[in-house]
Structures are given as C-alpha cells and as structure tokens.
Amino acid sequence: MQLSTLSAKKRTGFPEVIFGEGKTIEQIIAIMNKLMQHTERVLATRVDAIKAEAVVAAIPGVTYHPTARALTWFKKPILRVHEGYIAVVCAGTSDLPVAEEAALTAECMGCHVERIYDVGVAGIHRLFSRLAQIRGANAIVVVAGMEGALASVVGGLVAKPIIAVPTSIGYGASFHGIAALLAMLNSCSPGVSVVNIDNGFGAGYSAALIQQNIEKRL
Question: Which of 92, 99, 163, 168 could form a disulfide with 203 if both were Cys (CB 3.0 to 4.6 A apart)?
C-alpha cells in the first residue's frame, strides 16, 4: 500500500484513491487508516450514506459529501495550488451526483472549480448565459444523461479540451447511459474526449491533470 500510494502521488500529484462501492465498512476504514499514515489527503468515492456514517464515526476528521457520494480527509486544509479554473458543466439536477464527484475530485487535487449546473439542451438559453464563464476555463467537464447532446453543443462553442461524462439518467431507450455514451463517442465536435458512464471521478481527475500540465508549460 505504501509503495502504491507514493508511486501514484509522484506520477500525478495525488495519492491512491479508494473506490468504495462493493467494499465493506470495515474495509473502507482499514484502507483509509492505512493511507492516512503515508499521505496528507484521502479521497474515497462511491460511498453510500450508511457506510459513510459509520466511517465518519470511526475516523476523526473525515467529511462526507452526500451529493458526490464521497469521503474526504485532509491532514491540513486543502489549498488551491493551481491557477485558473476547471468548469464542470452539468445538464440537469438528476446528473448532479456525477458532476459533484468530478468537481470534488478536481478540488481535492488543488484545482479551483466553477460549477455550471442545469444548462442542458432542453433549456439551452441558460447555457448561453454562462458561455463566457465556460470559455474562460482551462478544461471543461460536461456531464449529461438522456441523449448526451450537451457535450457536442459545448464542443461547438469553445476552444478548450472537453471531457464528456455520460450518465445513466434517462428513460428506457437510453439503456442506462449507453445512448449518451454512444452519442458522445460519435460527437462531430473536435476536442471532446469521453470517459465511462457515470465516471465523474475519472473526468475530474483528467481535467485536473490538464490543469497541472498547462501550468508546467508556463
């Protein structure tokens, strides 16, 4: 565990992250305690409220973020160490858990995040009113379910790297996010990359790495 943690931190600037889904309360507590011995910050994703309550009670200083379904622990207050910001653009309220997972992940990596929510194509005027803020970001995470059209729309309006996240939100023919995934993969807008269904963590992590590497070149 120590070697793995130090290796991840050296490569990306962030230690190993815990995937909480499928793990027991006891396993999450044990892994968090082990990580806390070797790092100053710990992130556990996909943790439901019942598990989180037990972990928070067992480990002092752990915070649960219910919308993101994530646990965090910091030895000292997290600092925004990177200039500029990442925009997390979310289509609708139902997609918020995935968007918040992305936003929280990027913040844990020291990035400033601007949350731009409820700007899906069904109310596209709301997107246009936030366009200047979106264009000002160094990287953009776009989270959408249903038909996943928001990623293509944003891709046609900005000149920044976009990480599209399809969500499992939608009616029957959305096939639990497969429709949005295929739409994003087939986007004709340049600069759009796609992560797996509901993978807010992966999108936030990638956006933070883009932010870090922009600074290294400056």
Answer: 163
- φ/ψ (deg, to 5) at 16: -55, 140
Predicted model pTM: 0.89
Over residues 20-64, the pLDDT tens digits come to 999 999 999 999 999 998 888 899 999 999 999 999 999 999 999
Neighbouring CB atoms inside 10 A of 108's CB total: 21
Alpha-carbon gap, residue 137 to 103, rounded angstroms: 13
- Residues of 41-55 as b/e, b for ≥16 C-beta within 10 angstroms? bbbbbbbeeebbeeb
By the 8 A CB rule, do 113 and 86 touch?
yes
